[in-house]
Amino acid sequence: MINARAVPSIEVDQLIHFAVSVFWRAGAWTWNALDHGSQIDLGPYQERFRRFLLGEESFPERAVLIGNISNNPQPHVGAIFPFSNRVNGVWQHRFSIPGMAFWLHLGHFRDAIPAFCAVRSGVVFYSDTLNDNFEREMGALMGTARPAPGLR
User: Could you give the CA distance from residue 132 to residue 138 in angstroms, rounded to a whole number?
Assistant: First the structure.
């Protein structure tokens, strides 16, 4: 874990804007990926994130954005569309691209997770690899996937 704001080569505010915009887009539109729709539900946060992206509102109090960046020169080549699940009573939305993974937690937190919010603290996690994380999340998604029409 590092304070990204203290590292000149990391433009943490641009990473935050990128991640929030991906989550917002995933909630605003149903993307037709692999012949089935992909959308997350941000509920009452949808409009608040839109206004945050436009610089009209601060980041929501009950939202935590966690970023993880890999220094692996050969990251796993693949992306995971934004998806959601409920963890300890909190909605967790996630997506991954090569070398980066982002989690957006929404709700009432019972633990210390808000301390790791990149928006408020500037903290990002810096890992040797995200490949294990990518494989674990892809495996979980594959377990719930439905065959695309025409591939049965």
Answer: 10
How many C-alpha atoms does 146 have within 13 Å on its Cβ side? 8
One-letter amino acid for residue 103 of the chain: W
Closest CA to 118 of 1, 30, 8, 34: 1
65, 102 contact by CB (below 8 A): yes
Among residues 86, 102, 71, the alpha carbon closest in space to that of 94 is found at: 102
Answer yes or no: is pLDDT of 9 > 80.
no
Q: What angle do CA 20, 22, 24 make, to 5 degrees?
A: 65
Average pLDDT over residues 36-60: 89
In this structure, the strands spanning 63-70 and 123-127 are: parallel
Chain segment 66-122, per-residue pLDDT in tens: 998 887 777 777 788 888 888 888 899 999 888 888 999 998 887 777 888 899 988
Domain boundaries of the chain, sorted by first residue: 2-144
CB-based contact 42:29 (threshold 8 Å): no
pTM for the whole structure? 0.77
Could you tell me which of 98, 96, 70, 66 has the C-alpha nearest to residue 82?
96
Helix boundaries (H) for 29-130: 45-53, 118-121
